Amino acid sequence: MSKILHKKQLSENVFLMRLEAPLIAEERKAGQFIILQIDEEYGERIPLTIADADKEEDSITIIFQVVGLTTHQLSLMNEGDDIPVLVGPLGKPTHIEKYGTVVCVGGGIGVAPLHPIAQALKEAGNHVIIIMGARTKDLLIMEDEMRKIADELIIVTDDGSYGRKALVTEPLKEVSERNPKPDMVIAIGPPIMMKFCAETTRPYGIFTQVSLNTIMVDGTGMCGGCRVNVGNEVKFVCVDGPEFDGHLVDFDNMMARLNAFKEIEQHKYKCFLDQLAEKKIKEQENAL
């Protein structure tokens, strides 16, 4: 059981929550995640990266985007509400050391899990270049937090409403061509974005680490739902990851697996939205 201590809407469909979780706050490290479940008996279990932690408040911070049924239900919860199932910290922490120059690339909601990693890399003495991308200015999150960390901050939007009009791969290619080239790249965002970030850096031989967010159930490697092909091996994101060498990940296979239950998910989400609409109509009728 975990109480929601604070809730803030960052953009139209992106929310920040601080959750009461003293043991997780004490133990978590950059790159790790939690799994939560809203309905203790039948609810979907979803993985969310720990964006921050406060040991004094005994809290962790999560940032999520409304993309389906469970995240929509979570967005409707408020301060004081209890989340019945919260498990973590899970996954292997990011290996932090002084590499030299590290490029951190965040796309959309991927900026949230990138933040603690970039922060830890900066504290370790690295020169940190941060590239942030979003479809439009209104969907860009955590600019102020990232600006405090970055030695160089590059912002791009698909529609050109803020920063440069470009995809994140464009400035990533430019930075990769510098002399000397970066020592490492970390990319977090939608699978298709991470795939093309890895393809962008491949010709330059720059080690590129990605953080995968796959279907998960138990988070202990038992169910096999999160398996991915990395090189010639099968890995489980929940225990072997979530971070892997982006040049070895079979992104096409991973994206196909992510879409395996898409029709079922869309149907359940539509039913939920229809119920919400019916409820709203009844409330309006009763108010007359």
Shape, per Cα inertia axes: globular
Q: Reading side by side through the largest sheet, how are the strands ordered?
A: 12-11-10-9-13-14-17
CATH superfamily of the largest domain: Nucleotide-binding domain of ferredoxin-NADP reductase (FNR) module
Distance between the termini: 39 Å
Give the H and E element order: EEHEEEEHEEEHEHEEHEHEEEHEHH
Instruction: Return residue spans where pLDDT drops below 50 for at least 5 consecutive residues.
Output: none
Q: How many structural domains are formed by the residues? A: 2
Radius of gyration, CA atoms, in whole angstroms: 19 Å
CATH topology of the largest domain: Rossmann fold
Protein architecture, described:
- With 288 residues, the chain is of the alpha/beta class.
- It folds into two domains: 2-90, Translation factors (Elongation Factor Tu (Ef-tu), domain 3); 101-251, Rossmann fold, CATH 3.40.50.
- The chain has nine helices and 17 strands.
- Helix 5 (169-176) runs parallel beside helix 6.
Write out key terms for the chains shown.
288 residues; five-stranded antiparallel beta sheet; seven-stranded mixed beta sheet; 2 domains; 9 helices; Rossmann fold; single chain; globular; Elongation Factor Tu (Ef-tu), domain 3; alpha/beta
What is the topological layout?
Blueprint: E1 2-11, E2 14-20, H1 22-27, E3 33-37, E4 45-49, E5 52-54, E6 59-65, H2 69-75, E7 82-83, E8 85-90, E9 101-107, H3 111-123, E10 127-134, H4 143-149, E11 152-157, E12 164-165, H5 169-176, E13 184-188, H6 191-201, E14 208-211, E15 227-230, E16 233-236, H7 237-240, E17 243-245, H8 251-258, H9 262-287
Parallel strand pairs: 9-10, 9-13, 10-11, 11-12, 13-14
Antiparallel strand pairs: 1-2, 1-7, 2-6, 3-4, 3-8, 5-6, 14-17, 15-16
Helix pairs in contact: 5-6
